[in-house]
Design a protein that fits this description.
single chain; about 120 residues; alpha/beta; Hypothetical Protein Ychn, Chain: A; five-stranded parallel beta sheet; globular
Length: about 120
């Protein structure tokens, strides 16, 4: 049975370096056979929208759109903070693959099973 790992990400275009590194770590966790969740909050929820990450590419890393696509294709889950999403009036019909809008209880449910969590 695989372990669990969580990446909490609160940045998007306001700090593309942190947004990118968060998904690099999340992909590494999946590659290490960990059930992995990325929790998007604050400005990070914008990454849940199709096309938003298309122009984010930090030097030395794969483009963020590729990191997001690889994460979803490998079975990673993206939890999107419901209040943060609603505050920014984003489109729930435009979510990237693997993304789901959740309340805090869903994240807590994942974490209480003993998941370590890193934040960016």
């Amino acid at each position: 049975m695989p372990g669990r790992f969580c990446v909490s990400l609160s940045f998007a275009k306001d700090n593309p370096d942190k947004a990118t590194v968060g998904f690099v770590i999340a992909n590494a966790a999946l590659g290490s056979a960990q059930e992995t969740v990325v929790f998007l909050s604050v400005e990070g929820v914008r990454l849940s929208q199709k096309g938003y990450a298309d122009d984010i590419h930090e030097e030395g890393f794969a483009p963020l759109r590729e990191l997001l696509a690889n994460f979803a294709a490998a079975g990673g889950k993206i939890y999107v903070c419901s209040p943060c999403f609603k505050k920014r009036k984003l489109d729930e019909n435009n979510l990237v693959p693997g993304a789901m809008i959740v309340g805090g209880a869903k994240l807590v449910e994942f974490l209480v099973a003993g998941s370590p969590c890193v934040s960016f």
